[in-house]
Design a protein that fits this description.
By secondary structure, this protein is mainly beta. The chain has one helix spanning about 35-50; strands at about 75-80, 85, 90-95, 95-100, 100-105, 110-115, 125-130, 135-145, 150-155, 160-165, 165-170, 175, 180-185, 185-190, 210, 215-220, 225-230, 230-235, 240-250, 250-255, 260, 270-275, 280, 290, 300, 305, 315. The chain has two domains: about 1-60, no CATH class; about 65-315. The strands form two sheets. It has a 17-stranded parallel sheet that branches. A ten-stranded parallel sheet has the order 2-5-7-9-12-15-18-21-24-27, with no helix packed on it.
């Protein structure tokens, strides 16, 4: 079946500039993938003409249905059942997987595929790399459970690169549980949310686009993170220290506070960078794009709200 035919996601594209930012979400026209070259073209203009350009709000193409997930025109082969990858260097490509994928080997690549999951009896992920097998690469893939469930999450683990993913209709998009993670040019949206979530003792779901439980060298770059009820990025330090966390060139909205940094027993985070991002204002706590304790020192610059271009200030946690 064609990879895009079954989608019913509303068009989603917006551009942001310092003079005029209109990032409102799903009601703008979708861009073709080639328009992402515009930013590179702008850089060439500066190089050859010396003209000054406002770096914080250069024109940006947001990840959308046309730039993430399986590229149009690819025909997928249905695979029924779970996949446990045990051979190093395995490439899974062009698959419509009606099950879960577990990583049990290094240097695995998943690309040009959709993973739909199955009925789950407890919390789990469509892609499980909790073993931290090195150099997992997931590219141009959609993670979207066919069966709605409070147990379904997108990716668990660490030592992976996620590029141009479309993750939707899960509780948490990505659970980072260790080091060396790069999440880029992806769209995480339309989270599942339950008022009585069995994994929260019957209280509402704590759905996050990205949750970082521990790890060094975790980078979140040029993504679109929306529709979570808890946070777009929740740093918990539940499993250990989080250090050298980088959050740049993203559009993020929703949650109680959109980026929530908790220290807990492991204390202040070190090496945190939050720069050149645009934030929406649809948060439960007013004006709460980023919340953190003052003991966590953040390299924080060029972060603005849309659509009014007001500079973001870190709320004291």
């Amino acid at each position: 079946m064609s990879s895009k035919n079954a989608r019913s996601i509303a068009p989603a594209f917006a551009a942001r500039t310092r003079a005029s930012a209109e990032l409102t979400g799903a009601d703008a026209a979708r861009p073709p993938r080639r328009l992402a070259l515009l930013a590179a073209g702008a850089a060439l203009i500066v190089a050859f003409t010396g003209l000054a350009v406002a770096p914080a709000h250069a024109t940006t193409v947001l990840p959308s249905a046309s730039t993430t997930g399986v590229p149009s025109g690819i025909t997928l082969k249905v695979h029924n059942g779970d996949i446990n990858v045990t051979k190093p260097g395995t490439v899974l490509s062009g698959l419509d997987i009606r099950g879960l994928v577990k990583i049990s080997a290094a240097n695995v690549t998943i690309k040009n595929s959709i993973i739909r999951g199955r009925t789950m009896n407890g919390p789990g992920a469509l892609i499980n790399n909790l073993g931290g097998f090195s150099n997992l690469v997931v590219t141009d893939t959609e993670l979207s459970p066919t069966v709605a469930s409070p147990h379904a999450n997108g990716i668990y683990g660490y030592n992976f690169t996620a590029t141009r993913l479309d993750i939707n209709n899960v509780i948490d998009g990505i659970h980072v549980t260790g080091s060396n993670v790069l999440i880029q040019n992806s769209w995480i949206h339309d989270h599942m949310h339950y008022l009585k979530d069995p994994n929260q003792g019957g209280s509402p779901s704590h759905d996050d686009s990205i949750q970082v439980q521990s790890g060094n060298n975790v980078k979140v770059i040029a993504n679109r993170l929306t529709d979570s009820h808890s946070a777009a990025v929740q740093i918990t330090q539940d499993r250990g220290v989080v250090s050298n966390f980088v959050f740049t060139n993203n559009y993020a909205n929703n949650g109680a506070c959109t980026v929530n940094i908790a220290e807990k027993a492991y204390g202040p985070l070190k090496g945190t960078i939050i720069k050149d991002n645009t934030f929406g204002r649809n948060t439960k706590v007013s004006n709460c794009a980023v919340i953190a304790k003052t003991t966590t020192k953040i390299a924080f610059a060029h972060n603005y709200y849309a659509p009014d271009n007001t500079a973001v200030v870190v709320k004291k946690g």
